[in-house]
Amino acid sequence: MGYDPPCTQTICGIFGYGVRAFLERCGIQEVRTAYESPWQNPYISRAMRDYLGFHGLKHFGAKAHHPQTIGKLERWHRTMKDEVTLVVHTSPAQLREAISRFVDYYNQERNHEALQNVTPDDVWFGRREAILNRRQQLKIREMVTRREHYRRSMKTGQKTGTGTPDV
Questions:
Q1: Does 158 reside within a domain?
Q2: Which of 7, 52, 83, 139 has the greatest number of CB atoms lying within 10 Å of its CB?
Q3: Paired residues of 33 in beta bridges
Q4: Global confidence as pTM
Q5: Do residues 6 and 55 both lie within one domain?
Q6: Do 93 and 56 sit in the same domain of this protein?
Q7: Phi-psi region for residue 5, left (φ > 0), alpha (ψ -120 to 50) or beta?
Q8: Residue 57 contacts residue 28 (beta carbons within 8 Å)
Q9: How far apart are CA 26 and CA 40, in angstroms?
Q10: pLDDT tens, 11-65?
Q11: How many domains are contained in the chain?
Q12: Is residue 130 part of a domain?
């Protein structure tokens, strides 16, 4: 069984452990960003504040009466719950591993419509523009190919479409 650090016994510890594991896997040495909680004026423990401050993170609350922000967080939790609870986990370690696999899938493999159908990793590492440019080039090439095929079929008198053939 894998090492289960004692810091994962609190919410702050789980958060910190997950952040460190993610950054280590990605090879990121330092991150300057913010941590958003779903409450405008949340209680933040001294340990959490110290942890975020130590790592250069800033805590901020969501806007009051702003359901979109709360909805995003709730939707993420629902998506995770739907995926992770498909299997009955017999130990906390199995559950942590399932959540870790889901987070990896969510960030590295799953395309997000709000991000123009690229993964969060693609956005984070600056690959989005290259991916979107490549898609645009493929789209243009496909449109040219379809147009040429249509013109050729019209010259030879063939009908185009997906209808059933005349018998």
A1: no
A2: 52
A3: none
A4: 0.53
A5: yes
A6: no
A7: beta
A8: no
A9: 31
A10: 556 666 666 776 676 665 555 444 555 544 455 667 777 777 777 777 666 666 6
A11: 2
A12: no
Give me 46's structure tokens.
Answer: 């001294």
Identity (one letter) of the amino acid at 70?
I
Q: What is the pLDDT of residues 65-96, one digit of tens each?
A: 677 767 777 888 888 888 888 889 899 899 88
Which of 15, 72, 81 is closest to 38 using CA atoms? 72
Residue type, 6: P
**Amino acid found at 146:** R
64 near 38, Cβ under 8 Å? no
Report the candidate in 81, 79, 5, 66 with the shortest Cα–Cα distance to residue 36. 66
Domain co-membership, 32 together with 82? no
Question: Is residue 140 domain-resident?
Answer: no
Domain hosting residue 20, numbered range? 1-65
